[in-house]
Amino acid sequence: MGKLHALMIFLASSLPFLLQPIQVVHGARCFGSSNSNSSYAQNRRDVFSNLANNVVTNGGSYNASVGQYPNKVYVLGLCARDHKQTACSSCVERLTLETQRDCPNIMDSFVWGSDDEDRVSCLVRSSNQSFGNLELEPPVTGISADQIGPSINMTLFMQQWEYIVNMTLEAATKPDTSSVHKYYSALKAEFTALPNVSMLMQCTPDITSQDCKQCLGVCVTYFREQFRGKRGGMVSLPSCFFRWDLFSFHGAFDNVTTVLALPRPQTQEKGSSIPDKKGRSLHRGIITIIVVFTFINLLIFIGFFKVNARRIKLNKGINGCGAEYSDSDGQIMLRFDFDVISMATVDFSPENKLGQGGFGSVYKGILLNGKEIAVKRLTRGSEGGVEFRNEVSLLTRLQHKNLVKLLGFCNEGDEEILVYEFVPNSSLDRFIFDEEKRSLLSWEVRFKIIEGIARGLVYLHEDSQLKIIHRDLKASNILLDAEMNPKVADFGTARLFDTDETRDETKRIAGTRGYMAPEYLNYGQISAKSDVYSFGIVLLEMISGQRNNSFEGEGIAAFAWKRWTEGRPEVIIDPLLVENPSNEIIKLIQTGLLCVQENPTKRPTMNTVIVWLGTENITIPLPKAPAFTSSHSQSEDGTMSMSNVFTELSCR
Prior knowledge:
It is built from 17 helices and 24 strands. By secondary structure, the protein is an alpha+beta fold. Keywords: ATP-binding, Glycoprotein, Kinase, Membrane, Nucleotide-binding, Phosphoprotein, Receptor, Repeat, Serine/threonine-protein kinase, Signal, Transferase, Transmembrane, Transmembrane helix.
């Protein structure tokens, strides 16, 4: 229970939205982008029309997709374990209708439904992007209006409640690979003053066990911190569901044995005899031993308290800083305590060092809850303060699965530290330019990486609340997670634009030669088309498996253009891809050449690139000649990107 308590504290401090006022929401929760295109709505109606039947037929869990980007619809239907087929079908059908009613033009939605009359729980979730990532917002809550009652000992009740939470959480997060209900647990317990407490936890099957534990921990924290004393309720997130009440609200509880929440205090039986003289002596001896042991334990406790004082301070946030900070725009960010980071990295030990950059060093760290992090510690007195403020200002406002996640920062005294999610598969250049590892990148994997990078740029340029130009897009700044999904990283040189601003000029050129657009390199002109140029270079590198500066000293764009004009574009294709469809790959070579055209107005937007990638039968323009710029691997400002040092771990 102590571990769970620490986890609850961590989640309460590490998720800013937990501090926002909670509203009870009925019906589907809609979030994300809107799409008023009739094709999207029709695709969703088509897949919803048979969703209830498919969920029942497939044992209580079913996912599918319909259509082509940007009107492609992904759906997930899920019923709790031990459901009755008719009740499950009715529940899913009702939620599909609520989704279409409440979210007619919103592409991301979810609704967990609980029908007490039919005693069934179910989920319907829809999106224009595939599932698989942990989603912790927005929350949906439904809390009983009644209090447990003044006659209940709340201290004892909460002890027993947390005991049952711990049992249910542990059971729910042990993956059951033999069932479609991969993460699920229903438990019925007898409390001292309440004989029938029922609790249910469930996660969607597309996430990991650790993600499931984090998601359910968030749900529990909502109730524990915000609704203490209520007689039950539910909290749901896109990736998980938690409910408890004072009655069996689901059919699963019919086959569950009631457990005791905690051992009851033992009382002396009536009629016990008064101890004799010998017994009293033995009794006094026992008391003496107890007193001695109590005194020894007290001394141990005092010592433990002093030794553990630092750890208790860190546990205010385990994964975080224990505090929040709002910038001038009111944006909430996580501020880590320096002691938290120091402990995670074992006082920045050399064994945990991943590499050295121009403005500091990067270390691998492990927080007290087991979460791995990457810690970028800027060199004291360096000029990295600009990069530090830039990344904190930008990344705390950006949330996308194809962008590296900034977990928080620390700026105590003269320390300036950035804390990122740890991405285990290092950076793209460690794979695509390595003779052995490149064989792991099949065409399907390469296409997924290319598409993911493009989606991340679309988000930066068009879909986020900010308009951001990255300025240093290259293979070493693309990190790969455990499933080889790409994450754009290193925003230290990124540039923030006003929403109506299309271009700007700068005297400080920051980036990497060979990847910088000619108008930016030569004249300091910045626009979204600067990133499009860089994307084109990366795209051609992905197809060829060779670095930009490996082609006869002229750069990959010039080499590809010459082979294109000769009618031999297949020459650029990586020999490892000879078994793959050449027409599809040649189409992407054409896309890459369109991105690197010398005239920026002729280059496509990243949104257009996404359409080309997602549509098979589409005619795209013929490219014009690219700019023949020299290519070098060094950054203009002499800095080393965080992702370069990020990758050292995988080489050890």
